[in-house]
Amino acid sequence: MRKMQRRIKEFDFNKENHIGDAVSFIEETLKEAKVSNKSSIRAQLLVEEMIVLLSKYRSTDKYGVKVQKRFGDVIVTLLSKGREFSLAEKDMREIKGENARDDKSESVRETGLGEGDTRESESVRETGLGEDDTKISQEYEDKENEEIIRSMILRSYGENLKYINKRGTNKVRIIAVSSDYKNLIQTVIAIIAGVIFGLLAKYVLPENISSGLSEYILNPYKTMFMNALKIIIAPVIFFSIVTCFSQFKSISEFGRIGAKIMGLYLLTTVVAVTIGIAMFHLVEPGKFGSAIKTTKTTVNIDVDTSYEASLKDTIVNIVPDNFLKPFVESDTLQLIFLAVLVGIALGLISEYSKTLSDLFEAFNSLFLTITTLITKLIPITIFCSITLMIKELEMDTLSSLLGLIFTTIASFMIMLCIYGLILLIIGRLNPITFYKNIREGMLTSFTLSSSNAAMPINMRICTEKLGISPRVSNFSIPLGATVNMDGGCITLSVMSLFLAKMNGVTVDPSTIAPLAITIILLSLGAPGVPGAIIVCTGVVLNQLNCPIESINFVLAVLAFNDMFSTMTNTTGDMAVTTVVAKTEKLLDKDKYYS
Question: Are 578 and 434 in contact (CB under 8 A)?
Fold first, then answer.
């Protein structure tokens, strides 16, 4: 559909075969747009049904059909003046019932049969008598079958079918094809707009107006968006894991899968720390300038570094002292513990097991749907984030940060290649196909900068795109959002060594091993939300005897770095989940390679 952006044509309800003409127009246009035959046929069937409904409620003889491309989606729109109607299932049943009664009474009037005669004709038909009556009953059954098919078509489209009545005009929108690149297009537009507006706010707009935009519009919107995500993080983790464990047939089965997941997560974490430390010493980004001397340290950051990276404390804190505390504080490890406990208990009870399982499934679907609705606002959030970053960035420090940015991004790319090798060697799967299937999840993680926020989308991708059983993905992805912070490990390794060098602190080989262990332990308990890396960096700098104020130097590009870091984290989650599912024979290879 490169050449054709929009096609519009008008049709007449009174014209013979107008539905056929409209469908033919849509078929030709979708063919020109290179829409698949399957998607085209589905759209044509739905258009037929919608035109019938528009005709029933019309107040004019004309109706319009428009086919257009928007953000990669191919959309068919029907427009007609008329009374409002509803696509709700209840109203549709009432319409179907009225049509059936009208058709039946019309047939009865034509044959001169009363209601009793109609019932009698049913008996006659059973004995093979009454050919006319048999035809009438057959026509009635055909009508019912048509209505059943119509209902199935309507339900199959779900959110891809929208209807509104505005100022006496009925409008039906049908998404014939939903583009895989829609999110990418919206993201690119948001980034470009954010850069432009950020530069305007920094260099063109008066300072009072620029500050007012940040204080009263951009920052409040970002805060509300992240708060909206935070309220569903705990329910998504809890209900997804509970529904996962309710599907396990035995505790031993979970133990085997859980051990594989944790083993691979720890393996990738160690590899990530090694890559970060090695890349720093290979590139030596500190050579690109004496950054600390040229940086204007005007912001005081209060970072709590009292956190001790103790394995004992991490394990002990997994068990909460009351049931509600993990939900209130969004403590992911404690939520996982509760979910596992409830899931196991759910499998041990018999009388109410099915009822409770259905209830938890319903709650899981509810909160995943809420998450989907919230994440539709991602492009606006990207615009606000990029605008603020550009506005607050000190350009005179940019050259000093190029070495750090290059080192971290190069490390992330190497880690993505490592995931490919794990898929190829351990999972015996094509890594190119894997990355093709998860591109939506990688983009979402990149834009959200939050492993927890991207978690529902990644779980859906694991099931729908990769063919992974929910028994694995519903447990592995939430767990990975907490304990698998490969991107964060790379960031902490490179950033802490960089800031140490800029402050003249010598990091000898005897310091590297304790530093690596600290980073690994921090990754196990760090929350998968934007900004968590600031606290973790403060802990590491404290251990290296570096001033905490040094964080000011990297704060300007932290949001940009977080995007790549989060994308690496979630890619590792999905790679490990895929490998484990393959080894457990819980991966649909046909769906994976489709």
Answer: yes
